[in-house]
Predict the 3D structure of the following.
Amino acid sequence: MGDSEPIIALRGLTKSFGDQAVLKALDLDVPRGKILCIIGRSGEGKSVLLKHIIGLLEPDAGDVLIDGQSMVTSAPAARRALMRRFGMLFQNAALFDSMNVFENVAFPIRESDTCPNKEELRRIVREKLELVGLSGVEHKMPGELSGGMRKRVGLARAIALNPEILLYDEPTTGLDPIRTHAVDQLILDTASRLDVTSVVITHDMQAVFEIADQVAFLFEGEIHALVTPDELRTHPSPVIQAFLAGRALTDDVRDNSEV
């Protein structure tokens, strides 16, 4: 696949929960090697979209293509191979509280098809922790870590198997501005050092303008706009301008926006 072709292509992605339609024949291309931020109001289905990309949810219709290969229709073995191309940093890092830092980072490696010997495993875990700016914390428990450190351990676990694609679900939730900036810088550094494609779900608009190559605005189950951060600032959509200004979405704003 050439660099100009999207590494992830969503085609007609549709998902409902009961009577609630969350994704409506959504199309989206994720460019290879870039950082794409997905934004939108609370409850628009951003995390649902992310879980479809990684294969944790099945769509009602449509497809998720990874380098042209279907995540939806592939045989189980092929689907597992596609999923191994991903790493994911969940909200609040989602560390296993009963495991120390070393065991948390080692977990996906041990679960993989090619788990190394103990010495090699220790080397890999130390390497991944150093990549996220941590060392000497292997024996600490998650409860002993600050919020920012938990995020870093979560990212070390996400990159443990050298993924091509990293997914971040609200990576700065609950952090103060200084730690938020540090996590944003970590996302940039990780993308650069590991040459990965990054998809970031976030509500933090400062982060969007700092890290994004492209921004996808999710509105009423569809991609309302796919633009650069600079284009987002001046986008003519009343819905987007209301969102950026933190204003409530009124009926007249909704009626004047064409998706």
